[in-house]
Amino acid sequence: MSAILEARDFSAWYRDHPALCDITLEALDHEILGIIGPASSGKTTFLRSLNRLNALLSGFRVEGTIRFRGVDIYREDVDVAVLRRKLGMVFAVPVPLPGSIYENLLLGPRLNKTKTDTDALVEKSLRAAYLWEEVKDRLPQSAFALSGGQQQRLCLARTLMLEPEVLLLDEPCSGLDPISTAKIEEALVELKRELTIILVTNNVMQASRVADRTAFFLQGRLIECGATQQIFVNPREQETHEYVSGRFG
Amino acid sequence: MRRWIKFVGLAFTSLTGLACLIIVAMLAIILGNIAVHGWPRLSWEFITGQPRAGMTAGGIFPAIFGTAALVLLMTLAVVPLGVAAAIYLHEYAWQGSKLVHVVRLALANLAGVPAIVFGLFGLGFCIKFVGAGMDRAFFGGALAFGQPCILWAALTLAVLTLPTVVVATEEALRAVPRSYREVAYAAGATRWQVVRYVVLPQSVSGILTGTILAVSRGAGEVAPIMFTGAAYYLPYLPVKLNDQFMELGYHIYVLTTQSPDVEATKPILYATVFVLLVLTFALNLTAVLIRSRIRRRLRAG
Amino acid sequence: MDRPGDELLLKGRRRIVETLLETAVRSSAVLVIAALVLIFVFVAKEALPLLTSGDVHKEVTPWTMLRQQQDGEFVWQPVSEKPKYSLPPLLVGTLKVSVVALLIAIPLAILAAIFTSEFAPQQLRELVKPVVELLAGIPSVVIGFFALMVVATWLQDAFGFIFRLNAITAGIGLSLAVIPIVFTVAEDALSAVPQTFRDGSLALGANRWQTAWRVVLPAATPGVFAACVLGFGRAVGETMIVLMASGNAAVMSFDPRESFRSFSATIAAELGEVVYGSPHYHVLFFIGAFLFVITFLLNLAGHWYVGRLRARLEGKLKA
Q1: How distant is the Cα of A161 from the closest Cα of chain B, in angstroms?
Q2: Which of A6, A77, A112, A166 to substitute to test the interface with C, most C CBs within 10 Å?
Q3: Do residues C285 and C43 touch, judged by C-beta distance below 8 A?
Q4: pLDDT in tens, C61-77
Q5: ipTM
Q6: The listed CATH number (1.10.150.120, 3.90.170.10, 1.10.3720.10, 3.50.50.60) that belongs to domain B62-300
């Protein structure tokens, strides 16, 4: 499997405050890469650096490179909008936009003015997010009428409408009930066949369930990265061992 | 000792409550007095008819029409400009930048400029500079726009109400949750697309509030239009941009201070004041209601 | 050779559209600044001949305007055989009515603001604030009408003034226009004081009025002071109310029961009949420029004090 995303000596600062330090990490094609670590370890910062969403914050500075399919995404002439469609993001808190379920899903095609058959794509995305059966008769209803777990799956489907190549998920199941969590995890495992998935999670068990490879972040540094089995059963670093066994969190 | 403190406390609280009551009473007295004296004279003919018999009979339709036309022109100028400026300040500009600081300073000061100085601006800039220049360039020196007319009065009012629109629009933009914008950016939206598809649709009520407040202000201000286009009696309605116009507020001012027979014109005067008051009051009330509905919805989450 | 990542790179046309839109909104913001600058420039431009033109100086100079004109009296009589331009009567008139208005408006507005932010239940608060906004929405010409028609008569019946229209009548009308701004700024300042200040005081055993008087009000002082400054600015600049209810007599007198003339009312009353380009014309614009500068400085001062309030509250919180 080849690397679709590659970070090399990547560092980042919020004004003078360092957030990431010399991260060298790859995401391989069609895998689920889990990123674990305690709060403020830089997981979210790293994820947002992959689709340059951090550019929205003033005073954000980077060094090093991140390559997507060989292209340095921080180059001046990169179209950030296109980048963000190829690397779709799902946030920790479900954010349904005002409007119907159908209108929410149309966000991507509307922005890109794509001419694809939207109805077919809507069904495909909802099925992939394990939400089709529950909403197929309720598409014109307000998205706010859905439960928390349904809203998050809607956000997943909305992102899939972009037909991305990589899926970036930032603690997508925090605050969801176990059933919704299970549905989303199932959906991700299925989606692996078509895309690459990078999953930041606070829940160490989730990583062990779902991720093929796992990376452990601590205080802005990448401590260790390897096959999930190895990280959990036989970690090389002491800190990794302490974190996965719950010594600190 | 405790009882003394309690007494002082009660007195203090009552005093402040009394102050509130007095203010509310002041409002009630003005509204009541004008309503009581103005309402009897009101009739369909009053609103749709022309003034007659030296302003002692007839109606004030030309003044109503003039006010409406003036305010319409003003709105066409101020709303796009104000909304665009607010969008720049809130969506495009980097918040620490010098330009943002200066623009906000300019807005705050613009809001404090005396109304009569706006009138001087209208005279000195719009009429004597731009208007005269237009006459030289397009009309071969003939007097077309280098004189008081509804165009310049509307433009003067537009500058006066600009802060109102910008502030109300910014308030509306601020109310749109940051997460909505993030979702849109993450889906590949450009800055303009975020504004157009996510932010603006959610801000419509706020922008509407600002527009209504601006309209109410524009309909009520007299000093800026005294020398830029308002007239006491005209035999025609303003249909061209360089026409003069009759206007409710100006009509009230002239009738109050320069009427040859105060007692005879009093009924018409009171009725005119009543009409203007009802108009501005209704507009303000609508804006206040919309705004409190927005704020209540925000608090509910 | 086309590499798979090439489609990431920026297409020219979309960048142009985005840049155009950004330029359009930025220009709108710049226009705001331009408007303010243009106002000052063009008012000052018409006032300039007063300082520079020899022809104008034959009739009046900035220095003569400050001095007595005839028989040791300050007289403002631009429309007469020998025009006399003396500013002090107008200055006294402006200050007279402003003081009366502020004496009424400031106590009322600040006490009401204290009530609204410290003692009133939520429902009452949501009633008072809109009421004040509605008061602010009454056109000044309507207030002027009311002052001239109704208040003047009441006062004359009650006190028997010699002059029906005087600084007290106009001052009462003017206070109606000043109350909203003082109330709004003061109430904002008081509400900005964090709830923790009040909670701390109450926890130490103080009751609500002691908390308001000894803790909240002192903390919000810069903001309350700003409210007064901005109120003063409003009073000085107001035109219609004074124009209609002052009696328009440009006499030099400190007695509030006498008619007077203010700066802004002078401009409004005389600009209609003045000859374009005459010394009188330039003097009126000079007064306008003067008003602009005064209210500009008052506004700056007011906003500086609000900034001080914010800084002070944030500083205290950090500590």
Answers
A1: 9
A2: A77
A3: yes
A4: 777 777 766 666 677 87
A5: 0.92
A6: 1.10.3720.10
